[in-house]
Task: structure prediction
Amino acid sequence: MPVAWGGGRENPFQIDVERFKWVFELNLFSAWRLSQLCAAEMKKSGYGSIVNITSMSSINKSPNMSAYASSKAALSHMSANLAHDYGPMGIRVNCVGPGATKTAALASVLTPEIESKMLSGTPIKRLGEVQDIAGAILYFAAPISEWVSGQVLFVNGGGVQTLD
Result:
């Protein structure tokens, strides 16, 4: 696949089944398999925290995002269900859902017009930084969140950012 990340704008009339499956392989099935592998080790100690990275796209409705958005929605739902499966073993499963964050993926599609529109719907008037997302991941990984499982924490400056 030519794109290095699991997202993108796809024309729903042109995306083929193989590309759609690839997006799910990357965004859902890989997290499911890693969760299985991690949970097997965490079960031995009776404690663990799995943090999956979903997306605001999992709840937004945007054109040309059917593969990516549905794969991230499935990841959020899978994580909530795995929280029930792994919880009795002391393993928590949560998701962090980044909003528009300054990454190479966003830079590849961001225009000044899109950024302006995103910021108009964002109370904290800036795009996210990688450390904003890292802070949410650290929260879920730390013992301070030991009674939190099956949740999605959207880190988005209080707003909803879309590419349309």
The helical segments are 17-45, 66-86, 104-107, 112-120, 130-141. The mean pLDDT is 92.
